[in-house]
Amino acid sequence: MGRIILFTGLFLLTSLAVIGQRGDYQVGFKVISTYDSSRTYKPNTTISDKLHYRPIEIDLWYPAYITSSDTTASFVDLVNLLEQRSNFYDDTRTYNGFTTELLQYICASLNCTNHDTLRRVQTKSYVNAKPIAQQFPLIIYLAGFNGMSYENYLLFESLTKKGFVVASVSSIGRFPGNMTMAPEDVFEQINDADFIIDYLTKRNLASQDIGLVGYSWGGLAATIMAMNKTSRIKAVVSLDGSGQFAYVDEEENEKITRIRNASFFKPEAISSSFLHLDSDISKWNSLPDSIYNITDYILKDKLYLKIDHSTHEDFSSLSIVLKDNKTDSKYSIIQKLTIDYLMDKLRGENFFYKNIPNQGITKQFSQPTPKSVLEPIKKNRLTGAIKDRKLNLPLPYVNIGILNKDVGTTSNTKGEFELPLLESNANDTLRVSMVGYEPAVIYLKDLFKKQRLTLNVQLQERTDELREIVITDKKLTKRVLGNKTESKFFGGRFASGDLGSEIVIKIKIKGAPTYLDTFSFNISYNEGDTSTFRVNIYEIKNGLPDKNVLADNILVKISGQTGKIDVDLSRYNAIVNGDFFIGLEWVEGKSNSGVVFSSGFANKGTFYRKASQGRWKKFPMGVGFNVTAKY
Length: 631
Known about the structure:
The protein is an alpha+beta fold. The chain is built from nine helices and 34 strands.
């Protein structure tokens, strides 16, 4: 748990809340720590081991009486729970310092100047305040992938003010706790939620009126829970849940498809009222629209609403945690829809449907779709080989991709390649390129017209003028430029199957010319795969990587190593006269490179492209790439 690869003021009532009153309640917060003795957590242990049975941590928000001695939790108190639990659930490593790095990550995502501003944020949740002696409807919140309660605490406070008890269920998989896309890990979170329902209702801490709310991956978990615990759940709200969409990453898409095809995945079995709130804009503008709509398969009371112009991040409290006006946001609309829906379904209020805004929301009442929607989109496979025109020898690690689209690959050591294409790619342009060679451009409509998806290309070696090397006896200044982080907690990696994808950072030089001696990066985690990467150095045009200044391939082979890796650049005549981009391109390895590069919060100019001819996109944090330079 805790590995990330891959997001006020005080209100006093003039009198104590009256039981049954419809006005806002004050908010109490406590953490309940217990165990589920029906499940073993750490394998091959005895009952004396603190991790033998499944630990359960319940973050509980509830209507409360507030006295002058009660104090509120800070936002950092909630974030720090993740560090504490990471150290408890995973005894194979330590997570000390995780809180600070997570605050830096959140700050970077929000474009704030100093993460200490997050330390000053106070919640409206009074720690261990006295609960009101009344059984309120229970909302079980299932957190996003490897997430927990800090990600949506503002929603919990708002629900509690309206008379709900909210229990947040962290996203914790099998030992050592990391959530994965394996069904076994998803069901760990679901079983945690089921245990918490029993724990709270048997102790009269909440009523038997139960609703589920899940964000992102937790939305999928909530949906599966509603399929398999049909008698317990009255209402479900999926906040941009992962059960709805398709992943661009082929391996991840296969995993989500396996879940949808599993025997436990039965949308038609859901008997509770179901609301799916969907985002409109992906962080990656090339992601496809949903090709699987969960509401199409639900036979009972269901509703699909798309929040226009919203992103996935808008469904989390983190999107507005630093905003003074928290009502003017997409999140406030999402929060109001969620609360109104649960008030309707669990408390008998009848204003949800009347209060759905007429603008900014797309409504869909759908009927079951034929099973054919589950069939994969038909793909064609373009195969071929790339050779040197003069020598007729195979060229390894050549970039093959569709211009300005996230579709591409690299040739193997024999110059061979295979690229999946859709029928819609018939009007696209394919580009074949390699350092030191003239690129080739192929119009795919010609191949589709001939119904011959094989391609043999010969590249002409480029005859560039040799760059002049200036030899001087002037003493040069030597510095390390870029991001030197060696973080153990935050990292970047190449997505599964994305041969030809690149990660680069922008580096500002101190003087011209600048001679590059060494390129360095840190590997924080490695699954043991043998992978080959290519170092690329780009000039800058319009703020993006442009021409590659190198004349030769600089290849780095990684085989299980972790720690700092240094690449000698001095023998490649690597000279720059202005700011530049430098980074790595994944050119060889299995479907998942398995290598995680340390990332941090200095030098936030990290850019990524999914395929060699695709568009560059910017990340809010910095991958730990740096160069030793002389000028």
